[in-house]
Design brief:
By secondary structure, this protein is of the alpha+beta class. It has one domain (3-134): Tetrahydropterin Synthase, Chain A (2-Layer Sandwich), CATH 3.30.479.10. The protein contains 4 helices and 5 strands; from the N terminus they run E-H-E-H-E-H-H-E-E. Strands 3-1-2-4-5 form a 5-stranded mixed beta sheet. The two termini are 23 Å apart. The chain binds nickel (II) ion (NI). Nickel (II) ion is lined by residues 16, 18, 35, 41, 43.
Length: 136
Amino acid sequence: MPRVTVHRKAHFNAAHRIYRKDWSDDKNFDVFSKCSNPHYHGHNYELIVSLTGEIDQETGYVYDLGKLKELIKQEVEEPFDHKNLNVEVEEFKDLIPTAENICVVIYNKLRKVIADHLDIKITLYETPRNFVSFEG
Ligand code: NI
C-alpha cells in the first residue's frame, strides 16, 4: 500500500523567556541575548503536524484530519495558547522553552494519543524564518 503523509496546520501565541535559573541575568544575557529578557516576550507559533502511514482501505484516509484537529486543540492549543510557557506550562518548569524543546514536547504529547503505526513529524515555526522539526 502507498504510504502517504497528511498535514495539519495550527497556531498558538505564547510568551517565554530563554534562560537558565542557575545563571545570573548577566550570564543569561551573554548567552541568550534579548531572548533572556526577564520580562518575557512572545511569539506567534505556527505548527505543522504531519502523519505518515498507509491509506486505510475502508476509509481512504491515512488519518481523519478532523480528529487530528481536535487532538492538536486538546494537546497543544488549550495548554499553550496565550500562556507564559515558563510559568504556566508544567513541561517547562525545568526545561528551557526553546523552539527545539517545545517541538519535542509537542511530539511526545501527540505520540501518546496517535496510533503507533503512524509516523509523526512536528514542524514548529517560532518566526516566519526560524523553524525546527522533530520526528522522534
Ligand atoms: Ni523567543
